[in-house]
Design brief:
Number of domains: 1
Number of strands: 0
CATH architecture: Orthogonal Bundle
Shape: globular
Largest sheet: none
Structural class: mainly alpha
CATH class: Mainly Alpha
Radius of gyration: 18 Å
Helix content: over 70%
Order of helices and strands: HHHHHHHHHHHHH
Length: 264
């Protein structure tokens, strides 16, 4: 049996959002809220469609990952959970997909439907490529960062500067790269030449995100600072804890602004 499977502790309560994939939906909606104009009411129905779309994408990716794998090959809590509950999760997935389509057709404008459809085809193309091809890790993580950034921005009608868009892309791509690089510290991970090339790339991505953030929106440093701190202390955490904390750090800026608006 795969030895790594024995090194995975049962999930703690605070890890369940990451385990279920709903943290990605919460992060996307939080940044969508943050970037939405304050002068107009927040579009709750649009946010719900966005949240469901993100969650459906993440859950489908996990379920497809485990469909042909032996349980001994499952090296993470999220994939073991998806494998154990795959029948029930697929039932939930199809129901929520139907609900999401109904909501999108009912509440989204025509332009939003067109943009969403384009991103849907891009996401499907990515999913097919990942399932049937061996994509280089950096390309895979860059595509995830691009799709997630596009998801956050797809329903925004107010124009954003290219520096903010770049900073978001680097932030989300850096998040993926940080988690992937941590996996290289596993003693049972086979370090391919591609993986060795990827190792050490995260500081460059974080530095680029920080530079663009300082110019475009210094508030984003409230996310980059805790992420950088976690990266420096990464060897103090298990992979599962590190993944959960890194993903949770993406909520720092929206949470900071939310509290500031409540207080001031």
């Amino acid at each position: 049996m795969n030895q790594r499977a024995h090194n995975i502790d049962p999930p703690r309560l605070w890890q369940w959002p990451n385990l279920l994939g709903i943290d990605a939906a919460i992060i996307a909606v939080s940044w969508f809220w943050l970037l939405s104009p304050e002068s107009v009411p927040f579009p709750k129905a649009t946010a719900a469609v966005l949240a469901l779309s993100i969650w459906l994408t993440y859950l489908a990716d996990r379920l497809l990952d485990v469909r042909n794998l032996d349980p001994a090959q499952l090296n993470s809590l999220r994939h073991r959970f998806a494998y154990q509950k795959k029948r029930r999760l697929w039932q939930i997935w199809w129901f929520l997909l139907f609900l999401n389509v109904i909501m999108a057709l009912s509440y989204l404008s025509q332009s939003h439907l067109v943009r969403g459809s384009i991103l849907l085809f891009v996401t499907l193309g990515y999913t097919l490529a990942v399932q049937h091809c061996k994509l280089p890790h950096l390309l895979k993580e860059g595509l995830v960062g691009f799709i997630f950034t596009a998801g956050v921005l797809i329903f925004l009608d107010a124009p954003l500067t290219w520096l903010i868009i770049l900073a978001l892309f680097l932030l989300f791509t850096g998040n993926c790269t940080l988690i992937a690089e941590k996996e290289l510290d596993e003693p049972f991970t086979h370090k391919s030449a591609n993986s060795r090339c990827r190792s050490g790339l995260s500081p460059f991505i974080l530095a680029s995100a920080a530079c663009s953030s300082i110019i475009a929106s210094p508030l984003m440093l409230t996310t980059l600072v805790p992420i950088t701190a976690l990266y420096i202390a990464r060897r103090q955490f298990t992979n599962e804890t590190y993944r959960t904390l890194i993903d949770a750090s993406l909520l720092s800026t929206p949470l900071f602004v939310f509290i500031a608006r409540l207080v001031f």
